[in-house]
Amino acid sequence: MKLDADNKARIAFAAFLLLLAAGGFGWYLLSARQYTIYEIRTNDAVSGLIPDAPVEYHGVEVGKVERVELIDSRSIRVVLAVREDAPVTAATVATITSRGVATRGFTGYVYISLEDAGTDFGRLVARAGEPYPTIPTTASKSMSLDLLMSQLNDNVQSLTGLVHGLLDHDTVAALKESVDNLRLVTKTLADNNARLNVLIANGEDASRRLRPLLQSSQQTIDTLQPLVRSSQDMVDAMRPLVRSSRETVDALQTQVVPQAYRALTQLDDLAVSLGATADKVGRDPMTVVRGAPARRPGPGERQ
Length: 303
What we know:
Elements: H1 5-33, E1 35-42, E2 54-57, E3 60-70, E4 76-83, E5 92-100, E6 108-116, H2 145-166, H3 169-191, H4 193-283, H5 287-290
Parallel strand pairs: 2-6
Antiparallel strand pairs: 1-4, 2-3, 3-4, 5-6
């Protein structure tokens, strides 16, 4: 059976498509072998992270995001395809990061950043029961435009409320009065500028005149310092003498004075006795010869 030209063309085109498909499949298999599949799990929001987002290692693109999956209400799985020559080890950590202000390709994009954060540089392998090795994650650094604008709006509202609270009617009136007073003070200073210049000149002149007096006072102080030191030495030298005088006075008060008081008392008694004796002799001089008369016995006493 002979084929006409149309059939030959159809067969040739089908063969071309088959070869093209085989080549594409082979290229896919070849390229797939050059990448290793990893996954990361996070509880942070991944808004803006989409398939084919870049994966960077120390700022160099080494792969892309294959898919983003929701595990449960709090956990998210991100599957990564990373080149085999990328130095991913057990010390590698992943961070969901945004570059630029917005997300989803408007003025920035969200990507996966890989860095070394440990000391175990061994090969990262999948744990039992898991299809891919899991790269640990750190806190997300992704900031979306809507979240940024929301925070900015909150800050502006807080600032506006603070300004309204400070600049009420009374505060504005007080500020206006302060400005008026400041304007009045400025006008007064401007009107008295000549007087102020005279006062400043007089002050400078007085300062020049006082300088020699201050120097003379300093010289006087320097001269008096030796005298003050000599007086201090004299006071220090007199302290033992004052201490000794105090001890002498204490001894006089505790020893000599009581003894002198007792002697004076005895002398007083002796003077009284002598006075009585003199009176007796004056009344009866024979008493010196006869002696004192015998005392008469009292009632009931025998002579």
